[in-house]
Design a protein that fits this description.
By secondary structure, the protein is α/β, with parallel strands linked by helices. The chain is built from 11 helices and 10 strands.
């Protein structure tokens, strides 16, 4: 499929989605969101893709929602239609049965920050800047910023960013736990690819179950989450990959996983 606002390639079990609206700093338009939904559906049905990388350009990941489009919204119904599409995409990223790594350079603000919050892992360049500046134009984040950000970096720091609209640099993002690694400018995609290749070699079913258990458990009380974890652990003993992995460990050889 041909896309206008994103690029998509796959190789070695890795699908790479690149936001591609350079004239608007990769701002999130309705068209881009619709194309993101389409590519996520394509990836979900493609067993060859084991891990996904989401990235932008070297100067900006995504500078936010498309303000030119947003400013033309006159009613709550207009805003609802836009957010319905955004929620479908961001929830689709979070629920995708494959790990998603955000590779971030430059600006990641507003909707761009909300987009990367829906990813599983985040690596950024030294020049990355993160924030939710919506308060400065009289609105709030509407695609998960008030909910995912506190879950990732903690309530107090999230409230500071949400209340002031201030941004954080790469070093602060690392300390806050928003990203797991900071690398030199120009190296972020290579670093994400190296991590994706490492993950892609691991058993696909166990990866899928791990993502589900973590995400589901975050919305359960601890006792219920532990029970859900136990049931999923037990279920994996019916897979060929579990038997291969444990046999290989005992026999001191490299396992050959088949995703079964």
């Amino acid at each position: 499929m041909t896309y206008n606002t994103i690029n998509y390639v796959k190789a070695e079990g890795i699908g790479i989605i690149t936001l591609n609206r350079p004239k608007s700093m990769n701002s999130l338009s309705s068209e881009l969101l619709r194309e993101m939904a389409a590519v996520l559906a394509e990836i979900a049905d493609d067993d060859e893709v084991r891990v996904v990388i989401l990235t932008g350009s070297e100067k900006f990941f995504a500078a936010g929602a498309d303000i030119a489009e947003i400013s033309n919204m006159r009613t709550a119904a207009d805003a609802h239609r836009f957010l319905k599409t955004a929620h479908a995409v961001f929830n689709g990223l979070e629920d995708l049965e494959k790990p998603v790594i955000a590779a971030i350079s430059g600006l990641a603000l507003g909707g761009g920050c909300e987009l990367l919050l829906a990813c599983d892992l985040r690596i950024c360049a030294e020049d990355a800047v993160f924030g939710q500046p919506e308060i400065k134009i009289g609105v709030i984040p509407g695609a998960g910023g008030t909910q995912r950000l506190p879950r990732v970096i903690g309530l107090t720091k999230a409230k500071e960013l949400l209340y002031t609209g201030d941004s954080m640099d790469a070093g602060e993002a690392l300390r806050a736990g928003l990203v797991s690694k900071v690398v030199p400018v120009g190296a972020v995609l290579d670093e994400a690819k190296a991590l994706a290749k490492k993950i892609a070699r691991l058993p696909a079913i166990a990866l899928r179950v791990t993502k589900d258990v973590v995400n589901t458990g975050m919305n359960l009380d601890l006792k219920s989450a532990m029970l859900y974890e136990a049931r999923c652990f037990e279920m994996l003993f019916d897979t060929e990959d579990q038997k291969e992995g444990m046999s290989a460990f005992v026999e001191k050889r490299k396992p050959v996983f088949k995703g079964k």
